[in-house]
Design a protein that fits this description.
7 strands, Alpha/beta knot, seven-stranded parallel beta sheet, alpha/beta, 6 helices
Length: 176
């Protein structure tokens, strides 16, 4: 029988050590995410996978926020973030910094997530869209890589925070 570990037994970084740790060359771009709970969950997931930064764009609320904190559990204080009103401006800046833009969206010509083979040490900006409208078409048009999480059920829709977790786990598992 395996004993469940206590939180105090888990190998966790202190907030200071987290900020100094070498991050994976991944950033999240949250394009008009309306739910602060989803934003908080994105921070918590970004912390778990040691990603570089989160870009909060448009209506995506930045910290501080009690609702973000409730889901992030303090990760909003450790994961680097930047607010940019215009998502197009954010992605243009990331492209200039050498990031490959990747929209996670259901579009013509999308690549199933499990078929995507990221390259180690390549910088990726993973763009996730609004809970109802998805990633803006003008942003999709700027992305050389379009990924889709294959789904089999009737809804063909996942909560954006769930999608972030699935995509980050898949990519991180391939580049580490």
């Amino acid at each position: 029988m395996s004993r469940k570990l206590l939180n105090s037994e888990l190998p966790r970084l202190s907030p200071e050590a987290f900020k100094q740790a070498r991050k994976l060359p991944l950033v999240l771009v949250l394009d008009n995410i309306r739910s602060q709970h989803n934003i908080g969950a994105a921070f918590r997931t970004a912390d778990a996978f040691l990603i570089e930064k989160i870009y909060l764009c448009g209506i995506s609320s930045p910290p501080p926020s009690a609702e973000i904190h409730k889901a992030a559990l303090g990760a909003e204080d450790t994961v680097a973030w930047h607010y940019e009103k215009d998502t197009m401006q954010a992605v243009a800046g990331l492209r200039e910094k050498g990031y490959t833009l990747v929209a996670i969206e259901q579009v013509e010509g999308s690549v199933p997530l499990h078929d995507f083979q990221p390259r180690k040490n390549k910088k990726y900006a993973l763009i996730f869209g609004n809970e109802v409208k998805g990633v803006q078409q003008q942003i999709v048009d700027e992305c050389p890589i379009l990924l889709e999480i294959p789904q089999q059920g009737t809804k063909h829709s996942l909560n954006v925070s769930v999608s972030i977790g699935i995509v980050l786990w898949n990519i991180v598992s391939k580049i580490q």
